[in-house]
Amino acid sequence: MAKKFNIEVVEKWCKGCGLCIAICPKKVLELNDKVKCVAVRSEDCIGCRQCENTCPDLAVTVKECE
Ligand code: SF4
Ligand code: SF4
Predict the structure, then answer these.
(1) Rounded to an integer, what distance in angstroms lies between the CA atom of residue 63 and that of residue 60?
(2) Is the shortest distance between the CB of 28 and ligand 2 below 6 Å?
(3) Percentage of the chain surpassing pLDDT 70?
């Protein structure tokens, strides 16, 4: 079975720069109406952690689901 991942964003740390959204190869992330990053397609996440590594504010954490 394919692995599942949970993408957590600390909303108060996100400044809405969109870098994580641009780098995600699976288009998992989007900005919401508060201009904060949210995972809208976490089922497509492949766990590459590029979003986590790219965020200048360390707002994103990717965790493998148990
Ligand atoms: S871990 Fe990779 S696939 Fe998953 S949301 Fe982050 S950049 Fe996208
Ligand atoms: S890279 Fe970080 S600060 Fe920028 S939109 Fe993504 S979560 Fe927010």
Answers:
(1) 10
(2) no
(3) 100
Tell me how far apart the alpha carbons of residues 45 and 56 are, in angstroms, rounded to a whole number: 20
- Amino acid letter, 64: E
3-state secondary structure of 62: strand
Name the fold adopted by 5-64: Alpha-Beta Plaits (3.30.70)
Q: How far is the CA of 38 from the centre of ligand 1 (A)?
A: 12
User: Taking the model in full, what pTM does it have?
Assistant: 0.95
Residue 50: C-alpha distances to residues 1, 32, 33 (Å): 22, 20, 23
Identify the residue whose tokens are 């190869």: 25
